[in-house]
Automatic annotation (TrEMBL):
<dbReference type="InterPro" id="IPR010419">
    <property type="entry name" value="CO_DH_gsu"/>
</dbReference>
<dbReference type="Pfam" id="PF06240">
    <property type="entry name" value="COXG"/>
</dbReference>
<protein>
    <submittedName>
        <fullName>Uncharacterized protein</fullName>
    </submittedName>
</protein>
<dbReference type="InterPro" id="IPR023393">
    <property type="entry name" value="START-like_dom_sf"/>
</dbReference>
């Protein structure tokens, strides 16, 4: 299975980041390619993703199961997702940064795409990873500001 692995630092406290990622509306705005998230249960949701490359565009939905563990102030989300054209599993960790007011995010996901989506997604994963920090930080600032008013 191909792997998506990267670490970024975001300009938000751990508490602000946790508040945001626990909000369905935030997730659908902040993650590249995700266009909607619908809560299905306490630990499950449906994500609709759209992957684009040039003139090619493919929309797919994923049933996502997740759980959260916390140890030594590291919050680790375990994800397992499956859809008609993709399966995904792995972790997203939120780690207190050594720099005040910041959080480190570590993403480690394995995925496998099938059918027409396979040819598109393998070409755009790098673009999605590059886009993630800027989009996530921008939406997080908006989310945090809206909670302070």
């Amino acid at each position: 299975m191909p792997n998506i692995e990267f670490k970024i630092q975001i300009a938000s406290t751990l508490e602000q980041t946790l508040s945001a990622v626990n909000n369905i509306d935030f997730l659908s705005d902040a993650i590249p390619g995700v266009i909607s998230v619908t809560q299905k249960g306490n630990n499950s949701a449906e994500w609709v993703m759209e992957v684009k490359k040039g003139f090619m565009r493919r929309r797919t939905s994923l049933d996502v199961e997740f759980s959260l563990t916390t140890k030594n102030n590291v919050h680790e989300f375990y994800l397992s997702a499956s859809g008609k054209e993709i399966v995904l599993k792995g972790t997203i960790s939120l780690i207190p940064s050594n720099e005040p007011g910041k959080t480190d995010v570590k993403v480690d996901l394995d995925y496998e795409a099938f059918g027409p989506l396979k040819y598109i997604i393998n070409n755009v994963v790098g673009e999605m990873i590059t886009e993630f920090p800027e989009k996530f930080n921008s939406k997080l600032k908006q989310f945090t500001a809206s909670r302070q008013t």
